[in-house]
# Entry
Amino acid sequence: MTTVFPPAAADVADAPVADVPFAEAERLDRLLGDPWVTDNPFGFAAGAARDAAQEYPAAAEARLRAEGFHLCHLPAALSGNLRSFEDTQILVRACARRDVNVMPATMFSISALMTVLAAGTEAQHQVVAGWLREGRTIAFGLSEEQAGSDVLANSCRLTGEGALHGTKWLVGRGSSASAAVIVARTAERGAGAFTAVLLGPRELADPRVRRLPPQRTTGMRGIDFADLEFDGLVVAPDAVVGEVGSGLAGALRAQQIVRLMSTAGCLATADTALRTALRFAREHRTGGERVADTPYGSRELALAAAELIATDLTVLAAARQVHVAPGAFGLASSVVKHVATRLTAACATRSRALVGARAVLRDGPGAVLDKAVRDNAMVAVIDTSVLGNLRALAMHLPAYATVFADDPTDDTAREAPDPAPERERRLRAVFALGDQELLPELRPAALDLGVRPKDEVLLGFAAHAGAITAELSGRGEARAAELVAEVRAALAAVVRDAADAQRDRARSAKVSPEPLDLADRLCVLYAAASAALAWWYHRDRAGLYGGAAPGDTGWLTAVLALLTALADGRDPRTAAYRDLAPAGRLVTELDAKQRLFTALPVRLSDSGEQTENDRNDRNDRNDENEEVEER
# Structure
């Protein structure tokens, strides 16, 4: 096995990218320059100015395309740059933190691409890959305004004669794309009533296709979201992606990857928001004290940091799971989307509040934070609806009731030989964060829509929760052990209640919000399980988040304290500050070391590194806050 955390790429700048994980992300970040420099066209100030003017990021798009960034989601077998989705996640976050609009400017083809890869022919794979390599954008049309999140109510139709009629709503890059994949109705009812078709530049130039003007949006300003109208466009038989009637299944399988990758936008905006607030809070004073050192400021920074760390761990594990076990990825893809949108929205909003009155100004940190919050909200709905995602999640929960039905305090069960060595191998691969060699090539066709109990994280946590609790207790980490046990018990309760609700019509999703509330709670607990497993598989290795000592539980305790509070329906501010404080110290250190806010070692080009005295002063103040709370 390779070393999990090799030297940072900035220390080996001339090394081939393939030799150092995440070197390409670091190289692009250096190429784009220090984002804090106000006259940097790829910096925070320039992004905020484009947002105010609703301008498309043309210069950033051109620069990134010249570097092959637009091919970071195209598999290498099709002459793309995809090494793994873990690698692509980091690459996208490093670029999109400056302006999340670089994602739709360069990557809005991912939905169409993955639909074709999941369901299309080899010839179609080559066609779409060729278009991407040429720099073309392929739009994706699934949603319709009158149907909302109920895609089965869509009415855009492909007739038996091959004529396309109807309208697709808010199509990303709809007014400028060179090609499109459109999912249209070909039968009257059911999931098998839809077919996907691939339209090229010639078809989109046909007068029977009308591109409506882009609609104005609150976030991602400057990106065109336009309706596409079809009035009898004739579609050739070989344009059908896969089989007639398989369009919705193919699109939904593809959306599993799209949901995963959209979370890079969530984390990018949260990284920028938290980093901006952190620097402001360190530099500005209230009553003679730095905002970051006040009891309120230090707690809010710690909470925002815990929200971001929890999201980061859940996303990284999911980005690896889609390679390791694509057939078991359906639940994880919905969970990671919900977790990322919920927690990073809280992180970004909390960060903006820390700036106080300056948050309302259209220049400086207020402009950067306002854009981050609005763009983050756009990412939440860009590829799925919150309601539709929770409905999909609710269908999975009852099947896990038996998985969590055993007694987690039974030591004999913990000590028994592993009944599933193959699952253990997969789990080790999922949580060997940073190790690219353990990840097989992406297999979109292996993605599955079933709801059987097969998710690697849930099954792995059910199997290991007792051992993790015992290990933490044995190391003297009583608080972390207590929190892991709480997560295990809460998961058992959630899936049990979901199974009970499934049997009781009075508690079904059609008449009660309970199943969706349980799905929401499951997502929070799933993130906690991901964090616990990440600690478990790194407990004797180089530390996560900037090289903390192997087995360090500071970040784990902070994340679990946050997530158990949320799972209980409590305001996370009720969590003990002494539990949360390590997260605040961690992001402060990462920013000082010019590192991306992630478990992985990714160096940034940002200026403004703290002095050693500043860091020591900050840590001393956090220790004082903890002592005050304990007293």
Remarks:
- The chain has 22 helices and ten strands.
- Residues 1-18, 409-418, 609-631 have pLDDT under 50 and may be disordered.
- The beta strands are 138-141, 157-158, 163-172, 179-185, 194-199, 209-211, 225-234, 240-241, 285-286, 289-290.
- The first helix runs from residue 23 to 32.
